[in-house]
Amino acid sequence: MANGGGGGGGSSGGGGGGGGSSLRMSSNIHANHLSLDASSSSSSSSSSSSSSSSSSSVHEPKMDALIIPVTMEVPCDSRGQRMWWAFLASSMVTFFGGLFIILLWRTLKYLWTVCCHCGGKTKEAQKINNGSSQADGTLKPVDEKEEAVAAEVGWMTSVKDWAGVMISAQTLTGRVLVVLVFALSIGALVIYFIDSSNPIESCQNFYKDFTLQIDMAFNVFFLLYFGLRFIAANDKLWFWLEVNSVVDFFTVPPVFVSVYLNRSWLGLRFLRALRLIQFSEILQFLNILKTSNSIKLVNLLSIFISTWLTAAGFIHLVENSGDPWENFQNNQALTYWECVYLLMVTMSTVGYGDVYAKTTLGRLFMVFFILGGLAMFASYVPEIIELIGNRKKYGGSYSAVSGRKHIVVCGHITLESVSNFLKDFLHKDRDDVNVEIVFLHNISPNLELEALFKRHFTQVEFYQGSVLNPHDLARVKIESADACLILANKYCADPDAEDASNIMRVISIKNYHPKIRIITQMLQYHNKAHLLNIPSWNWKEGDDAICLAELKLGFIAQSCLAQGLSTMLANLFSMRSFIKIEEDTWQKYYLEGVSNEMYTEYLSSAFVGLSFPTVCELCFVKLKLLMIAIEYKSANRESRILINPGNHLKIQEGTLGFFIASDAKEVKRAFFYCKACHDDITDPKRIKKCGCKRRWEEHCSLWRLESKGNMRRLNYCRGQQSFSVKVKVAARSRYFKDPFEFKKETPNSRLVTEPVEDEQPSTLSPKKKQRNGGMRNSPNSSPKLMRHDPLLIPGNDQIDNMDSNVKKYDSTGMFHWCAPKEIEKVILTRSEAAMTVLSGHVVVCIFGDVSSALIGLRNLVMPLRASNFHYHELKHIVFVGSIEYLKREWETLHNFPKVSILPGTPLSRADLRAVNINLCDMCVILSANQNNIDDTSLQDKECILASLNIKSMQFDDSIGVLQANSQGFTPPGMDRSSPDNSPVHGMLRQPSITTGVNIPIITELVNDTNVQFLDQDDDDDPDTELYLTQPFACGTAFAVSVLDSLMSATYFNDNILTLIRTLVTGGATPELEALIAEENALRGGYSTPQTLANRDRCRVAQLALLDGPFADLGDGGCYGDLFCKALKTYNMLCFGIYRLRDAHLSTPSQCTKRYVITNPPYEFELVPTDLIFCLMQFDHNAGQSRASLSHSSHSSQSSSKKSSSVHSIPSTANRQNRPKSRESRDKQKYVQEERL
Q: 1119: which of 186, 502, 680, 851 is 20 to 30 A away, CA to CA?
């Protein structure tokens, strides 16, 4: 008996089939060798049997390919002959036999249809004739046959549908079956990988070979699944030729043959690798792949790998078997993984040559595979690499850190917007900010923005995605975020489209998590109304909309009333680091004021019961703090912000004060102040928490422990543990969920005063009391502010203000109102404008055309028409610009009085002279075309050209004054007809203006760097920040970019936005916003005590020191003395100075430019030319003064001479009706008023 079956055959040292592997068999292997004599020429062949002796063996190298290993227990072929053809034949017979049956069936069916087509008409005619000539009973056999056919078709259809459902992924059963088939196919492929280490063909016992049993079970399942697929297939022929069907043909039948023959052939089982092509479909069924890129990537990978593994399997088969026509003698021993390596080297065109095909079949296959494999490698691999490389770098999920809040910032994410936001939000003064910022945007950041994120990597993270996608919202953990901030593109060409995008973002976020706090930027005022339609939008929970157009134009409007106020307010809510300058220049004083910010802090219990002016004076003199407003809680527990409410209001326990200071630690003094401990302290830095405060807090702690159920006492004690809330510091009261915290009544809280509460005796001198004369109806009232019960006001005044037939104000009482006017009635020609007396007015130069985006001029006009002005105090507004553009804006302006339009262009000097621009109080330059230009340097070209054009104009010093005096007018500041007790004469004007440089101008800019072109005599560096430039410091330039700081300020303290909005909008309320959202216009209303009470609110003004009651302090006096005198005497709260730029010089200067000084210290020295920013009370007596100068078109002559009052009693007394028209029009004095 042969031992081992010989050595390796051929030059390779390995045999085909069992060759090369028989050396690894045990010594118990028996083989029968077929001995052939190659040199014999006889036709007969003799066979010799091998000897049974174990000591002898026969070595036939050429016959080694035909020898297979045989174990003693396996009844294999006694001759050792290979049976690979039986396995292959089973597959081929199955494939071609089934194909033949299908084609035969189709042929017979076709012939049957063709042959029976001719007799079909005859049979049909016979059926019809038989049915008509015979009775109903004779038709029964035909009907039964048809019903049987129909029943048969119905049964086959049902089975087919059932099979289709079973193999489809539309049902759970189908998905499970599809996934199971794929998993078993991969399992069968793994078994092939294991068996590939064995000989190509070997004898195996089915009952003892575990892998063969598993493979048999898998293939039985594949056979059943094949049957289901065959039943469900509509086209049997195409199904038979499918790739999956071919795989089954060449893998399933050989398994059954191997069981029958007790031998195994590796054969074509590698075709199971083609099942990998369905991998992407399986992952889609499992909802793992959801994006097109991921599906495409998996498809490419699965096709590439399945082709690679299948080709490697074929090479492994033919190389280890050899060529059949060479009697399998040219084989070589290659493992499967060596074939995989060979195919990869071949596809990549490298071809090291260490492994190569030796058989003819292998080399022929490689020829064709190189063509297809190279093409696939060259196309698939780069695309796969591109898809992998293009995977979102920022596609992860945010991991929340315990004990640390995070906010989500989305919307317009660019380098400029993000850098401005981070510069303010992460300012170094916010040392206690423990908030992480998560940016979410659908576009990956560029290199500059990515570098910015890396510089702030400890507090900033970026994720690529969209807030409109709930999956992306889940990635950034929006449900646990403290707030979501939405940035707007301030420079977009279509503001309405940008607002619509942000509103959709709000809707998506609120739909995902209704409780999330949202702060969004809006460009247009009228689009704010759409936010009210969102059910979960709730400003009481902190939701806020920062309307840039509303605030920008509101700031500019306030500058028309007090030039430079826009700069001061912008600096107050922006984080500015203190820059110390030693030289005595105007920058030194300006920058000292710039370092001031707005803070909030709860007031100490030592202030309880004192009036607001008393507390304000004490804070300024002793604590070195400027308090401008408080959050007052009324009896019904509703809170509202009151700005300089006057001496009628008493400080309550736990009142929140609004302070202007340079440091948060300074504001703490207002909470720590104790009269017993700190009354004699002169150094404010020594005012710290005293023992009284500690004992009080301990007492409160014990109080809470003893009376947990007493919520009122609990709230009272917790109110003592108030904390500093800085605009720029993360200490918003709502974070601490303190029961003592206040919820504002409205986001734009109306400054409605409370009834008189225990007024203190007046501190006015007898002279002041006498000066106020008959208006002093109460010894406890303010000399300039009447806040009495309506019953104490004379009835005539109430009747005067409550004219039931006249609508002077809008329905909320916050703004002056008139009946809608057609635009043609307010249009002035150039000649009419020149003949009209215009002085002390506001000229609005606007660039725009019929295609320009609307900027919302209503937001500019509303603050100038606030009802806390008397009608004669309203400044006339003249628009100079394109009539086509102004017609589009007119719908929102036609209810405001004293508005005129001069069609023209701001670049025309003739138009500017016609509107007496040299006599105006303010010239505003706006443009609606700025965002239509791509070049940022040219965005402000129109505004800059208009500003330079006005400054270069020259005027005759006699024309303006003579023209005004001829009609009984003098420019404001020269008028002395007002009562001598009026402390505010407006901004003083020079006797005459001969050059346009002296005309007060404020220019709106889009690009901050363009501010360098406004003043030709300044030395500002183009890289200088906007707030450090001279035009901004002087209040002659304003850019919307300064409003970016409001996002951070609002997040940290939502009261700040309410305060700013109240100051700059003139008193817009939620009721008014809802009305405008309903009608897009103001609605007139009759005067009632409630609406008239709304007039009683503060307004910003400028106090002149050159003349008037404060002239004695103007020459070398202290600012602190002026502050106390104005507060005690007139309830006016001073908060800044508007000083000439060269006032610090010893030599006189001709320069008329002024700059802003915010909250100067007590010892600050005043100069006579200073103008003081102040918050002045509503003057009830002003309605009596200048009555002859009040050309009210909506009041009667009899009522115009009477004084206005805040409260009125309803009266049924007869009132004179308003005159419908003026009889005389011959005087130039009334030309303008007729056009209102």
A: 680
Provide the domain limits for residue 53.
Answer: 1-82
Beta strands in 538-578 (DSSP E): 544-547
User: Which residues, including other chains, have CB under 8 Å from residue 1137's CB and lie 6 or more apart?
Assistant: 1119, 1156, 1157, 1160, 1164, 1166, 1170, 1171, 1172, 1173
Is residue 47 domain-shared with residue 168, that is, in the same domain?
Answer: no
CA nearest to 192, candidates 268, 259, 254: 268
Which 3-state string (H, E, C) describes 1130-1183?
HCCEEEEEEEECCCCCCCCCCCCCEEEEECCCCCCECCCCCEEEEEECCCCHHH
Average pLDDT over residues 7-15: 35
Tokens 């990998």: give the residue. Answer: 276
Nearest to 564 by CA among 1015, 1058, 1101, 995: 1101
Token pair of 14, please? 């390995």
Are 1005 and 997 a contacting pair, CB within 8 Å? Answer: no
Name beta bridge partners: 407: 437, 483
In this structure, what token pair is assigned to residue 867?
């009802």
Give the span between the Cα atoms of 614 and 51, in whole angstroms.
129
**What does the pLDDT look like over 1177-1228, one tens digit per residue?**
888 776 654 433 333 333 333 333 333 332 332 333 333 333 333 333 333 3
pLDDT band at 675 (very low <50, low <70, confident <90, very high): confident
Q: What is the edge-to-edge ordering of all strands in the sheet holding 597-602?
A: 639-643, 626-633, 656-661, 597-602, 725-726
Residues 826-884 pLDDT 10s: 999 999 998 888 899 999 999 998 888 888 999 999 999 999 999 999 999 999 999 99
Provide the token pair at 215: 């493979």
Higher pLDDT, 584 or 974: 584
Helix then strand count (H, E) for the chain reads: 42, 25
> Mean pLDDT highest for which of 582-591, 594-603, 694-703?
594-603
Q: Which residues contact 942 (CB under 8 A, 6 or more apart)?
A: 847, 906, 907, 927, 929, 930
Residue 525 in domain: yes
Q: Say yes or no: 100 and 233 in one domain.
A: yes
Specify whether the CB–CB gap between 881 and 961 falls below 8 A: no
Q: Which residues contact 505 (CB under 8 A, 6 or more apart)?
A: 410, 411, 467, 468, 486, 520
Cα atoms in the Cβ-side hemisphere of radius 13 Å centred on 416: 11
The CA distances from residue 899 to 285, 335, 571, 968, in Å, are 68, 95, 31, 21
Distance CA 23, CA 26 (A): 8
Residue whose pair of structure tokens reads 């998506």 in the numeric block? 508
Domain shared by 199 and 234, yes or no: yes
Quick check: is 32 in a domain? yes
**Looking at the domain assignment, is residue 710 inside a domain?**
no
For 236-313, where are the E strands, in sequence order?
Answer: 263-265
With a CB cutoff of 8 Å and minimum separation 6, the contacts of 138 are 130
Q: Would you call 653 helix, strand, or coil by DSSP?
A: coil
Segment 1018-1028 shows an average pLDDT of 77
What DSSP character marks residue 355? S
Of 771-775, 1023-1027, 1068-1072, 1181-1185, the one with minimum mean pLDDT is: 771-775
Q: Are residues 168 and 232 in the same domain?
A: yes
- 30 shares its domain with 101: no
Return the higher-pLDDT residue of 689 and 479. Answer: 479
Residue type, 530: H
State residue 1127's pLDDT score. 92
| AA identity, residue 635 | A
- What DSSP string describes 40-89? ---S-----PPPS-TT-----GGGGGG-----TTS---TT----HHHHHH
Q: What average pLDDT does this structure show over 1070-1086?
A: 78
**415 in Cβ contact with 449 (< 8 Å):** yes
- Both tokens of residue 1206? 């805040």
Going by C-alpha positions, the residue among 470, 461, 468, 298 that lies closest to residue 391 is 298
221 with 343, same domain: the answer is no
